[in-house]
Design brief:
The protein has 8 helices and 14 strands. By secondary structure, it is α+β, with helices and mostly antiparallel strands.
Length: about 280
Amino acid sequence: MAGTIGRGGVVAVPDDVAEAMAMAGDRVGRLGCHARWFAEVGSTNDEAIALANRGAEEGWLVGADSQSAGRGRHGRSWSSPPGAGLYLSVVLRPPSHAASLLTLAAGVGVAEGIQAATGAEPRLKWPNDIYLVSSGPRKVAGILAEGGTSGARVDYVVVGIGINVRQAILPPEVAARATSLEDELGRPISRGAVAAAVCAGIWRQYQKLIAEGGEDIVAAWRTRAVGTFGRAVEWDSGGVTCRGVARDVDSDGALVVETELGSTRVVAGEVRWTP
């Protein structure tokens, strides 16, 4: 893992992360072939997007010990206390046929990585949440994929991953729906081991998506999303709150919801579980 040191708040890649990534070897593929790490940054995704726009090759990794402006989907903030989590973004340059399912593939990869590193069994909530169920469905990680295009061609996709690893004091509105790996498992968790396993999982699913298409990705996503199906959900569309029961994810990655008016596909937006 080649790191950049000393410019604009950039620091050395932490030893625990660098050593675990090196030990993972070929399993992480090109992820981390070059890396930039910050003690604190606004958003790792913003930094990775800037690198991608300047022509950074696939595999660049941006990490931080803390984010002051971390975000999730739709501009929502992602609480990023210093040293409590993993805040990573990777630059990918997928062929166009793979871009639409990249968020689902990354979700499967992150869940696989967390399980490999910790023994926990993460579940998935459409489209980008990873949660644990031991104390009720509480979010432990999230994914934010943001892309750049050149005309009709996908130029790059930056995949941001936030994982709550260690116990931390979170804002009350976040603490009610979030947890950490250490909180749930009751033991110390190696941040480096999680980083390497998650990168290996993402790379594996990414390569499978490119080579084989999305069928196996969607099937693996369904397996980890069993808690989603059959649940009452709501979402906003055109200023109207819609409601129904989640039934499946289709081959394009859309959530299939049964409503009073029949089956519908939710292709974007936030889906909320309801009582």
